[in-house]
Amino acid sequence: MLKTNLLSIVEEAPKSLTFSRREAARILLSGMAVGAVLPLGATDHPIWKHFEDEHLMHRAEFAMGEGKLQFLNGEQFASFAAMAEVLVPGSTKAKSANFVDLLLSVGAEKARKDFVESLAGMEGECKKKFGKAFAGLAASEKSELFSAVSEKSDPLHAVFLNLKEWASGAYYSSEIGMRELGWTPDRVFAEFPGCAHAEGHD
After folding, report:
1. Helix (H, G, I), strand (E, B) or coil at 192
2. For residue 50, is pLDDT > 70?
3. How many Å apart are CA 122 and CA 133, to the nearest integer?
4. How far is CA 97 from CA 88, 123, 183, 201, in A?
């Protein structure tokens, strides 16, 4: 993948050693503005609009710490959390599902509807093929399912891409994700690499 130098994007190194969602979102958006090849594939995906809301990104740190679901029900949350972990390993530690839940709680109705329908569609395919929910599948079954729907000819390909974008955006806007992309404690990127999860992203 192409790599874009982002030294000019990060103006100075903040004194804090923690990396906030607000900082991550700012850098990801800046990278998109200068044509960097970012981990999120579709720049028109709803998650990008949320990244532009610095107040929401700041609020995310506190809301996620409370551990309360904002939009998804328990079953939906468990389902997406399990899918996100397969799509982007490390998503559970990055609290990706919690972050997406918060974004959906303030998101546009269409984005909410598309997400819920995508989740239901994927779960429906799980029940059809394996007779159980995604979270209950063996690792090999999860891999088989995602391998099938990742094909452009598969009826659930668009559903797969939608869920993958949410999972990718949530992960790479976390401190864990930014470190994977090259972040160091002084906030300087030598270069902005593409996604390192070959199976999770195109």
Report:
1. strand
2. yes
3. 9
4. 11, 16, 22, 17
Separation CA 189–CA 112 (nearest Å)? 34
Hey, which bits of 7-142 come out as E strands?
Answer: none
What's the average model confidence in pLDDT over 161-170?
93
The set of residues, in sequence order, having a beta carbon less than 8 Å from that of 119 and lying 6+ positions away, is 76, 79, 80, 83, 163
Query: CB of 100 within 8 A of CB of 50?
Result: no
Supply the pLDDT for residue 41: 57
pLDDT of residue 32: 56
Task: Measure Cα distances from 99 to 22, 66, 117 in Å.
Answer: 12, 12, 19
Residue 152 has pLDDT above 50, yes or no: yes
Q: CA angle 92-60-30, nearest 5°?
A: 95
CA dihedral (27, 32, 37, 42) positive or negative: positive
116: nearest Cα among 62, 166, 61: 166
Per-residue tokens: 116:
């819920």
The arithmetic mean of pLDDT across residues 43-48, rounded, is: 80
Amino acid at 171: Y
Domain ranges of the chain: 21-180
